[in-house]
Amino acid sequence: MSWTKRQLVTQAFEEIGLAAYVFDLTPEQLESALRRMDAMVGGWSANGARIAYPLPSSPQLSDLDAESNIPDFANEALYLGLAVRLAPSFGKTVSPETKAFADMAYSNMANQVAIPTPERQMPQTLPRGQGTKPWRNFNNPFCQRPEDPLLAGSDGKIDLE
């Protein structure tokens, strides 16, 4: 079971020193933070870091009590990134450690969800070049035929024998 959007927003406020058990956050502040979180995750998705977060089609359709559906490894990146974005609007300064942890958490999350760049394969009519040794490629002076493997999700290639 994943965190709710409200839990992520509340955790971001706690990170900047506005914990809900000490400060009363208004519904408008929570909704504003939710819109910022939606926008942040939308930017991540545009950059290729897709984490299964349910992005609303309009700001009015986002629900604070909805499940975030994000994997556990993305929770820290989400609430720390949101804390860094929320702090200036509340007159708070984020500590350098929080900024460093937010960057590290985002990098770790992006490494988990990044789609690898496909290998570039040269056409079969392209000569290998002068450094090609005949014993390395069975006397074939041209590039090998491009290989198009079948993929089995994130596990890798399927070998058909």
Structural write-up:
The chain is mainly alpha-helical. It folds into 2 domains: 5-113, Hypothetical protein yqbg; 117-161, no CATH class. It contains 4 helices and 2 strands, in the order H-H-H-H-E-E. Strands 1-2 form a two-stranded antiparallel ribbon. A hairpin with a 5-residue loop joins strand 1 (150-151) and strand 2 (157-158). It is elongated and about 75 Å long.
Spell out the key features of this protein:
2 domains, two-stranded antiparallel ribbon, 161 residues, 4 helices, mainly alpha, 2 strands, single chain, Hypothetical protein yqbg
- Low-confidence runs (pLDDT<50, min 5 residues)? none
Q: Indicate the CATH topology of the largest domain.
A: Hypothetical protein yqbg
Overall form:
elongated
Beta strand count: 2
Helix content range of the residues, please?
Answer: 25-40%
The CATH class of the largest domain turns out to be Mainly Alpha
Q: How much of the polypeptide forms β-strand, as a percent range?
A: under 5%
What is the chains' assembly state?
A: single chain
Structural class: mainly alpha
How many structurally independent domains? 2
Order of strands in the sheet with the most strands?
Answer: 1-2
Order of helices and strands: HHHHEE
Mean pLDDT: 82
What does the largest sheet look like? 2 strands, antiparallel
Concise description?
The chain is mainly alpha-helical and 161 residues long.
